[in-house]
Amino acid sequence: MSAEYATFGLAPAMRAGGVLANGDYQVHRDFVDFIVDGRPLLFHLSDLDAVSPLASDVPPAIFTAQVRSLLLEADAPLTGGRYVIYGCPECEGLECGAVTAVIEKAGDDYVWRDFAWQTDERPDLELNGYHGIGPFRFHGAEYRSALNSLLNGDAGPRRRVLIIGARVAVLAKLAAALRTIGIGADITRDATNVPADELRTYGAVAFGRAVGEEERAAVRRSFEHANVEVAYVEGLAPIIPLLVAQIEHALDRSPRELRRLTRLVAADGEAGIEVTSTCRVQLTAYRLDRLYRTHAQEVFDGVLETGRHRLALDARAVRGESFIVARTSGSVLVEPMAQ
Fold first, then answer.
1. Is residue 267 within a helix (H) or strand (E), and if so which, with residue range?
2. Does 12 share its domain with 140?
3. Among residues 276, 281, 284, 212, which one has the least CA distance to residue 244?
4. Closest CA to 237 of 207, 201, 266, 213
């Protein structure tokens, strides 16, 4: 089968981290995804939880080596001229499984072919090949331009969060949870005297519910005077997994049109969901009871087809002051339950 020409591009993407309903932690990873014919290549792989080798948290020398490898300026890392396209977000081991493909030159063009799921030295293309994906032929100039742009870019997205609030115990727990999943976090009540160079290291500012409007305005002025754009998060409730999910969403720098999870509405005991490609979606309900105790319940976990969906929720999970977190492998959305 001859490869047909396809467009090649790159875009920021995220493997969503978080504190899960069962108490487990999932690591946050920022990476650059491959955009083939205007669509993330990862979306062709159904519900795969994986990242490309172009992750922002790898050392610069390794990141550069990965780019050079995709440009075929170095020998293939795997037998048979195969390269890792997507790998495990938690480790670097091939034994966890990886999507690999042969990358080769065809004149001035680059061809990606024989995609497969690989866990050993040699993949079984008949058994584990992605027969509906590729081959793709990319114009050499477009391909080289996209990858070379990464060698001249900045250090990647800012993954530090400035937390501002009144409840010290909650702030400390939130900062610890963020650090556990790979997001830096600092706590303060006053950003007035923070140097501009330090403010530039933050990607988001999270306000607790007890922070007044004057304090919020003062923080915003500090960032404006430093000419720093950040995402502002209005904390919905002192529930750590909920706040982490809000911050994860705020840190998502991927283009909205390239996200899988694009809509969440929570009202009248139902959740409205929109996904742009078939994927697994998890819904978790969080609520505070009259004694301000936190309750969490997973209310949906399943694969949804492309489009909009209405999902009925357990009435006991969403009574009173409650919130819904919707999660895919690469996106998180949060909404309070409207009664």
1. strand 261-267
2. yes
3. 284
4. 207
Which of the listed residues 252, 272, 296 is the one where a domain comes to its end? 252
Helix/strand number for the chain, H first, E second: 7, 21
Mean pLDDT, residues 27-39: 94
Give the CATH number of the domain where residue 216 resides.
3.40.50.2300
What is the pLDDT confidence band of residue 188, given thresholds at 50, 70 and 90? Answer: confident
**CA distances (Å), 263 to each of 19, 31, 45, 161, 319, in order?**
21, 23, 21, 24, 22
pLDDT tens, residue by residue, 11-20: 999 999 898 8
Q: What is the mean pLDDT of residues 289-312?
A: 92
Task: Put residue 289 in one of left, alpha, beta given phi > 0 → left and psi -120 to 50 → alpha.
Answer: beta
pTM of the full predicted structure? 0.88
Number of domains forming the structure of the chain: 3
Range of the domain at 271: 259-339
Is residue 279 domain-shared with residue 208, that is, in the same domain? no
Q: Which of 42, 37, 44 is nearest to 12 (CA)?
A: 42
Element (H, E) at 243: helix 240-251
Question: Could you tell me if 183 and 28 are in contact, meaning their C-beta atoms sit under 8 angstroms apart?
Answer: yes
What's the rounded Cα separation, in Å, for the pair 310 and 323?
A: 16
Tell me which amino acid residue 322 is: S
The tokens of 194 are what? 């923070």
The CATH number assigned to the domain holding 336 equals 2.60.40
Segment 67-96 shows an average pLDDT of 90
Average pLDDT taken over every residue of the chain: 90
Six-digit token string for 216 = 């919020």
Do 233 and 334 belong together in one domain? no
319-331 average pLDDT score: 92
- DSSP at 102: E
Place of tokens 């300026």: 73
